Amino acid sequence: MTTKLFGEPVQRREDPRLLTGQGRYLDDLGPGALAAAFVRSPHAHARIRDIDVSGALDVEGLVAIYTWEDLPGRAGQPLPLLIPHPALTHGRTAYPLAKDVVRHVGEPVVMVVARDRYLAEDACALIEVDYEFLKPVVGVEEALRSGNLVHEDVPDNVGAHMVQEVPSADGRGAAEAIEAAPYSLEFRLDIERSASMPLEGRGVYARWDADDHSLRVYSSTQTSTSVRMAIAATLGLPLPKVEVIAPDVGGGFGVKIMHPWPEEILVPWAAITLGREVKWTEDRREHFISSAHERAQVQQVKVGFDGEGHVLGLDVTILHDHGAYTPYGIIVPIITSTQLLGPYRIGAYRVEFSSVYTNTVQVTPYRGAGRPQGVFCMERTMDHISRHLGLDRAAVRAANFIQPDEFPYDQGMIFQDGRPLIYDSGDYPESLRMLKELIDWDGFPARKAEAAARGRRLGIGIGCYVEGTGVGPYEGGHVQVTSDGRVHVSTGLTSQGQGHETVFAQIAASELGVPLERVSVVTGDTRRFGYAVGTFASRAAVMSGNAIALACRKVREKALRIAADALEADPRDLSITDGVVHVAGDPRASIPLATVAVLSNPLRYAFDEEAKRATQFAGGGSADRPPIEEGDEPGLEGREYYSPIRSTFASGMHAAIVETDPDTAEITILRYAVVHDCGNLINPMIVEGQIHGGVAQGVGGALYERMVYDQHGQLLNASFMDFLMPYVTEVPAVETAHLETPSPLNPLGIKGAGEAGVIPVSAVIASAVEDAEDFPIDRMPLSPSELFDLRSRHGTG
Amino acid sequence: MKPPPFDYHAPRDLGEALAVLAETGEHGKVLAGGQSLIPLLNMRLAAPGHLVDINRIDPLDTLTATAEGVTVGALARHSRVERSSEAAAAQPLLRQALRLVAHPVIRNRGTVVGSLVHADPAAEMPAVLALLGGSVRLARADGPAREVAAADFFTGPLESALRPGELAVSAFFPALPPRSGTAFREFARRHGDYALAGIAALVTLDEAGAVGAVKVACIGVGATPIVLDLTGVEPDAVAHAVRGRIEPEADIHASADYRRHLAGVLAARAVDEANGEARRAFDHAGR
């Protein structure tokens, strides 16, 4: 690092644009485009007998109506199953438009294209679909029990079944270890559905150039490169003729890593077919019933432990609600299964999950992606053990921690990237010490007693997690210094507000020794960078950050070589500061990076004064050598890829103090403290912002949000009026402290931070409410009404 | 989420508005603040053939406070009434309730009279009107305006006595009687949400300073605001008395039992606070 930019709380460079209405979101584009709207199934499970579009044909401004029968070739095939897995024996995906059967309310059946969205919706309202009702399956236990099938050819509605088992050091299996343990407990845990719920929904806008036979698609996506490949493959277009761009994206949180969505195929196809620009902007109701949800699981836990709280055996059986389809495979329950172990070394572990189909919206990753459920399980288990033994909850956790000298620590399982689950670094005892100090853990009992004396009910809770971040396979970075001294950075993955324009520029500015203002960053535009995976799994900083750093180092090396020639100095004596290459010990010997960029590109034609220096009669270079050396390239630019052997493991611990109203059962979070370790910090302010946002979503999942399906598979609260996302008034101030244990796996020593905040919140709030109320909390979210019911049941109301 | 087609009317004066409403009858719908109507249209849950936008009729944007009470015109926004010190002096329950109506930006646009006509059983202003025994003035083109008492105005969930062709031009909220105090307590899942339950309370002391009359209006626990006379009920029996006289229903946010329990808790708190306010008024008048 040649400057201090890396690690500094640099202000977010994207904020002036985004906060003053200058952002360019999907619906800001293509004001003249035709509008698409969809007739979606009003039933959870039904067979389509007939579609009668005749009533809609008279709508003024109607352009086209499409059903499944209109879709050609691969567009009429089921959508891809993105992540196949041997345990996913019965993977099923939807057709872009329903073929014979609809399997959840909201599944698209008919696509309408009209002059504007109003008219398209008017036409949709006039299309009549005749359905034959089939019996809906709602709820995972119902799915296994009822005999009704979501997919006729999937017995018992089980799409996947998987067991992972890690024996204890002395070779015992979990059942045996639990049997032999001095103490054992069994309990059930429930977590309900929520959803990513970005404020900007999905959206696709497509332009077909009939002369050039090329397609440009804008999508509000977390992966423009993969959407591009899916569109090219499905519509049979040559890849170089397809461009996909993610404009400013108003939040993703996982739902936009799912792809291709039906609309990402249908809108470009309609644009090509009609030879017109077509746009579809998802509305909020569509987002609720036709995007994706997550979280719902039922967990059965058996645990054996000794008198100090050491976990000797843990057996967890998970029923995972996968909704109607499995396009994203079984990543979510795999992450739950593997990340459940958290910062602990336990005896024997066995985890079994069944991924079950129901007639509800499909389940794909939502920020945290299965970890909140796993952490809920493990942390509730720690609290159950503490309660059973009468031990301090922090002490029981500490007794089970992996110690700092045990890294790299192999948990003996296979992680979501198909690689061994090996933790790279961490310091869990120090993290706990910091958290206890931050929240005044040891002083709380006195505070609680004092409050109780005044009729107030307080409780404190704690939750720990380890998060595998920065999964592969790779990302790339391209860095170019142009002859005006500007630095252009591009990477293929997309941004949804994380602050990539800032942190990637910080990395480039630090590596190259240039002022931050001279660096610009482009993400998610396949015209600039074609190879990428996407923004998910807290991977952007780790993957693209390191790739950009490597690309910068390549550029720097070349710059120093050229500068050394020009200055007749040894490259090892050169450094770059403020965009100028200097010779150590000789303040007068220097050359601007801009000039180095000019010299890097031998020119025949001079287009300005500066460029004259690189032309053939300017006197540079040796007459005995070619202007471009073998193996070299013109220009001051570099492209590098970062591909890690495995994930890097961030960690954190949260604690909360809550108050529960003895009369109204209102739950108020009085304090919320976070200790977070994501290795070296690129920008502590942005990391804190990520944590705050994550905690806010976690509070939503813990106290407010749920998807309420009735027995018919109707989503009863598909609006922001009844799906209760917390407002700023419901989110506590978050107190944070950072611990930095650098990752040994990547050049920058960093780990991911994007999802961290959300992961343990339900576990922490459950722990705190349990402490306040003195009865077990085994189900989240928890509303005042449910707390009131629990009090009645436990006779403490 | 785009509304179905409708004809838009923007009358310039009351006469023109009433004429359009008379002509369109049950197909006409008045647009004032639009804070409930526009979402209903966009969700296609309402499909009136004609929208009659009254926002250009300035004479409806009135707020008058007298010794008798506060008269609120059809275009007076929540925020205007909330901020009016004259209105608060005449009837403090108005400001107490309006602070709980949704969020400031919604109060900047939504109207008090619109809220009354919308008649949501969980809304605050219908309860205020009902508790105080106020009234709504309904005008029509082909006859004299009629004044409908609150007791007759709220007829069911989202249903009022307003007939097709009529326009609610104003509402009247009686002033606070001497030696009286008011309070509004409610419990919402999130700040600004419709309450799971809420209580408006009015306590009046007798000339000797003893508690004379106690009345509450309950929201969120019935089809309309439920007014209960609790005169003579001991303070520690208020919660029980309220719970015994309401029949709340369960929904996705709260069980019926919880709502009943909550209404009792809030009633005790609201009556206690109103009692304190009444006591202060009594002491002030005595000095």
Strand order of the largest sheet of chain B: 4-5-10-6-7
The percent of residues in helical segments of chain A reads 25-40%
Q: Give the C-alpha Rg of chain A.
A: 28 Å
Biggest interface pair, counts: A-B, 30 and 26 residues
Structural class by secondary-structure content of chain A:
alpha+beta
Which value, in Å, is the CA radius of gyration of chain B?
Answer: 19 Å
Let me know the largest β-sheet of chain B: 5 strands, antiparallel
Helical segment count of chain B? 11
Question: How does the overall form of chain A come out from the CA principal axes?
Answer: globular
- Extract low-pLDDT stretches of chain A: none
Largest β sheet strand count, sense and barrel closure of chain A: 7 strands, mixed
Order of helices and strands of chain B: EHEHEEEHHHHHHEEHEEEEEEEHH
Structural class of chain B: alpha+beta
Please count the beta strands of chain A (DSSP E, at least 2 residues each): 29
Name the average pLDDT of chain A: 96
What proportion strand of chain A?
A: 15-25%
Helix content of chain B: 25-40%
Task: Give the arrangement of secondary structure elements.
The complex is a heterodimer of chains A (797) and B (287).
Chain A: H1 15-19, E1 34-40, E2 46-52, E3 62-66, E4 101-102, E5 108-114, H2 117-126, E6 128-133, H3 140-145, E7 158-166, H4 174-180, E8 183-191, E9 203-209, E10 214-219, H5 224-235, E11 242-245, H6 262-274, E12 278-281, H7 284-290, E13 297-305, E14 311-321, H8 331-339, E15 348-356, H9 371-389, H10 393-400, E16 409-414, E17 420-423, H11 428-439, H12 444-453, E18 457-469, E19 475-481, E20 487-491, H13 500-512, E21 519-523, H14 540-567, E22 574-577, E23 580-583, E24 586-592, H15 593-599, E25 636-642, E26 648-660, E27 667-677, H16 684-704, E28 734-738, H17 761-773, E29 779-780, H18 784-793
Parallel strand pairs in A: 1-12, 8-29, 10-11, 14-15, 20-21, 27-28
Antiparallel strand pairs in A: 1-5, 2-4, 2-6, 3-5, 7-15, 8-13, 9-10, 9-12, 13-14, 16-17, 18-26, 19-20, 19-25, 22-23, 23-24, 26-27
Chain B: E1 7-9, H1 14-24, E2 28-31, H2 37-42, E3 50-53, E4 63-65, E5 69-73, H3 78-83, H4 85-90, H5 92-98, H6 104-107, H7 112-118, H8 124-132, E6 135-140, E7 143-149, H9 150-153, E8 154-156, E9 159-160, E10 167-174, E11 180-187, E12 197-205, E13 211-219, E14 226-229, H10 238-243, H11 256-286
Parallel strand pairs in B: 1-3, 2-3
Antiparallel strand pairs in B: 4-5, 5-10, 6-7, 6-10, 8-9, 11-12, 12-13, 13-14
